[in-house]
Design a protein that fits this description.
With 247 residues, this protein is α/β, with parallel strands linked by helices. It has eleven helices and four strands.
């Protein structure tokens, strides 16, 4: 594991150097993936790394967990509350569409949840340009394969150092580098709405996705869900398409 972590840290250093960046930053949510990423960027750039805590109409416990992470990692951090911005923008858009009788209430919960992720992305890049840092993503192999991230939200990053790690591997790495145990064992959630959990939304478990990615047998129901989500989210893992050259 030492060699794997060292390899990843060296990769992050080289990536930043090749981009002309002087450091790295990550949005710290209070979950295990961003916690591990926080520890990795601290190892890569001890004096030029930054954790960013971005409450956005969020569960207060997530903020407390994020503070626990940056303290444990000894990572410099900033906190920017996006709640007023989120509420102003969402209410402005909703009011305008309601005036035209075109607001789709059935789409409201997910569209507002994705807005939170996209506001966070914009804020991370504002900070990244200020510091000349790269924005480091936190998606693991399961999330990357399923497309379980918001396009141009938490998927809008410069690199994804955990994208080859299963959720189980993320937890093992996190324990090894010193992420607090209660963060490692916390139920995975994107904090999209109160009570939301990743596995409930996905319709399968990280254990099943990990087993699938490792080539192991899993129930047919889970296999169908995983393959459907992977196919449906293909556009998230690609650059925007362009038409063929007209001749």
């Amino acid at each position: 594991m030492d060699k794997k972590i060292e390899f990843t840290v060296d990769w992050l250093k080289a990536l930043a150097k090749n981009a002309g960046a002087t450091g790295l930053l990550v949005g710290v949510s209070g979950g295990v993936d961003s916690a591990l990423t926080a520890f990795l960027i601290k190892k890569a750039f001890p004096d030029h790394s930054l954790g960013v805590i971005l409450p956005c109409d969020s569960n207060p416990q997530d903020r407390e967990d994020a503070l626990t992470v940056v303290k444990a990692a000894k990572l410099k951090h900033v906190e920017i509350d996006l709640t007023p911005t989120f509420r102003t923008l969402s209410q402005t858009v909703r009011q305008e569409l309601e005036n035209q009788d075109e607001w789709n209430g059935e789409k409201e919960r997910l569209s507002l949840a994705n807005l939170k992720a996209r506001l966070r992305m914009s804020t991370l890049y504002l900070l990244a340009q200020n510091y000349n840092y790269l924005v480091v993503g936190t998606d693991n192999a399961a999330e990357w394969h399923l497309g379980y991230f918001t396009k141009y939200g938490d998927g809008g990053v410069d690199c994804v150092p955990l994208a080859n790690l299963t959720k189980g591997e993320v937890r093992r790495w996190a324990a090894y580098v010193g992420v607090p145990e209660h963060i490692i064992n916390k139920a995975p959630t994107a904090g999209l709405w109160p009570g939301q959990t990743d596995e409930e939304e996905m319709g399968t478990t990280y254990e099943m996705v990990d087993r699938y990615l490792e080539g192991k047998e899993i129930p047919e129901k889970d296999r169908q869900i995983i393959e459907r989500l992977h196919k449906r989210s293909a556009h998230k893992r690609q650059m925007p398409p362009k038409p063929p050259v007209f001749k």
